[in-house]
Write the structure tokens for this entry.
Amino acid sequence: MPYTYLWSDGQTTATATNLSAGTYTVTTTDSNGCSAIATATVTQPAALGLSTSATPVSCNGGSNGTATANASGGTMPYGYLWSDGQTTATATNLTAGTYTVTTTDANGCSAIATATITQPAALGLSTSATPVSCNGGSNGTATANASGGTMPYGYSWSNGQTTATATNLSAGTYTVTTTDANGCSAIATATVTQPAALGLSTSATPVSCNGGSNGTATANASGRYHAIRLFVEQRPNDGHGHEPVRRNVHGDDDGCERLLGDCHGNGYTTRRPGPEHQCDTCFLQRRLERHSHGKCLGRYHAIRLPVERWANNRHSN
């Protein structure tokens, strides 16, 4: 008594093959023409899915990035194959770039995805410095300027200071290390300079005759602001109980020249004792001379000089 089979998809064998998921009806008939009908349901697993996540490289040019594949659906267990050859769910020690991963389940189903490893901008470090004001002083500063990397930045100077700007520095070269939030570091140096030592010497010629007034005194300054010469000449009484003094600054080593006038000289300032100015110190302000198209340019520098005391129209020390 042979049986015949007829499936709803047209197959006529006892076993229908190559079926997709769904419900199928089969009719069987015997040799007497008797028949029976039944159904069969073909199931399927959930779709195999694959997603990825990544952690960036800590420092520019580094290789501590990671990428993780997360499979779902299909039929466990899952296998993984990364484009760099690693076969675990998480690929490690990666440099910046894009990586492909393929996952395969127990039934041989596969899925493909990519993961991108990023990196921060390169950590940069530059420095600037302000010089010491006076030779041998300690008021210089050095500033570190970090960029790139991952903020915030920390600083460590070779003299132990830990701020972006190191202060109260004497002349010399200082090293600074900056470290960002990921532990990346960069090193730079800053050089604090100082001017040459400021020197001052004096010379004098005596009065020719007792009680006379043709003596001279010369001050010779040297150092940072070029050597200059101050000529001091006593002049006759002005009729008001004050003996004016004329001071001339002769040509310095840049060839620039200035005239010191009275108490309010243009460009330079001098003061003499008297009812309006009870002082015994003269300030000579001269420029840091520089030539530019025949002009003397620069900023002022004050030289402190003793001033003669005056009484009864006579000059005394």
Remarks:
- The chain has a mean pLDDT of 77.
- The longest strand covers residues 22-29.
- Residues 290 and 297 are 5 Å apart (CA to CA).
- The domain at 49-117 is CATH 2.60.40.1080 (Immunoglobulin-like).
